[in-house]
Design goal:
Bound molecules: pyridoxal-5'-phosphate
Helix content: 25-40%
CATH class of the largest domain: Alpha Beta
Radius of gyration: 21 Å
Shape: globular
Organism: Heyndrickxia acidicola
Strand order of the largest sheet: 1-9-8-5-4-2-3-14
Strand content: 5-15%
Distance between the termini: 22 Å
Number of domains: 2
GO molecular function, one term: transaminase activity
InterPro entries: DegT/StrS_aminotransferase, PyrdxlP-dep_Trfase, PyrdxlP-dep_Trfase_major, PyrdxlP-dep_Trfase_small
Keywords: Aminotransferase, Pyridoxal phosphate, Transferase
Largest sheet: 8 strands, mixed
CATH superfamily of the largest domain: Type I PLP-dependent aspartate aminotransferase-like (Major domain)
CATH architecture of the largest domain: 3-Layer(aba) Sandwich
Oligomer: single chain
Pfam family, one: DegT_DnrJ_EryC1
Amino acid sequence: MTKERIFLSPPHMSGNEEKYVQKAFELNWIAPLGFNVDAFEKEMCQYVGVKEAAAVTSGTAAIHLALILLGVGKGDVVFCSSLTFIASANPVLYQGAEPVFIDSEPDTWNMSPQALELAFQDSLKNGVLPKAVIVVNLYGQSAKWDEIRRTCEKYDVPIIEDAAESLGSVYKGKASGTLGTFGVYSFNGNKIITTSGGGMLLSNNYSAIREARFLSTQARDPAPHYQHSSVGYNYRMSNILAGIGRGQLEVIEDRVFARRSVFEFYKEHLGHLPGIQFMPELEGTFSNRWLTALTIDEKVCGVSAAEMLKILESENIEARPIWKPLHMQPLFKENKYYRHSDSESISEELFITGICLPSGSNLQKEDQVRIIHCIQNRINIETKEEMYL
Ligand SMILES: *Cc1c(COP(=O)(O)O)cnc(C)c1O
């Protein structure tokens, strides 16, 4: 008999979602826009401490809107973290602009400030500065924001914070998603809280978010008839899904706590194994630990990350490789890439050695023990340490 499947990051409802959805049914407000959308935006603003937010259909849509609001268009250059999900960069292509990819650094696995500086110096030489920089907080870990912001301010280029994976994380007292000119969250089914699909654009610039709402509802001019002077999109979140979001946001702190506990339990029982290293947490930052990520040094422990993934899969455990860096994607084979140093491409190393383990906030202890045993057995170490069950 095959063992029950353990998922990477399944949804975890609070039970209150249906209350808000039910309200929408009672009032027959089954539409994009509505009281749940307004309330979800307000509640998010209060939680993260930002002035305005627009709930949209996906994190990808939110990034797209941010690029439009920053005036990114045909032929423009946008710098973007390389070690991320494709959704960080796809909207750059929607705008006919060119992404240039920036490597990671080892302390956070996020954008390397020194690679970023190099990219800026090159741009300056060529006389074309980027229109924006997209900075990702990978798996919940904040990037080195002080350094990155200092550099971007020096060249006067705005930042889009792709916080799709880092809602609930904190950088030096500030909520993840509030550190750039625009912040982006995703509520896709696998994220720390979900609306099944959805996203949000945040900013302290009220008029920019008002413009985002306008653009995401087909850019309809204020006229008695249907009149349009600019390209619009159908990106607004539905009132039903926003109801799910409200129920989810109520428990965000619990979800962060649970994911961090999952991480700690893995680390406690696997951290001492030779060749295993967990994703770091930079001092002054607090990660939501959306996914527990670790690297496996094949030379030390005799098993590669790819082999470990196969072993886990054979046990019906859904683990995943680290994102394949975007500069390695066929889609971006012509795009420029700036590595951390002449001798190091950190994102490529992480891609080869890294895996993500099941990290759901509803992961059962006995399931986590099953995963830990599977890895311990394979690495087959001499240690006599007992697992408690
Ligand atoms: C999930 C994710 C997105 C996109 O969010 P969607 O809501 O799925 O469009 C963007 N960036 C990163 C880093 C993500 O993990």
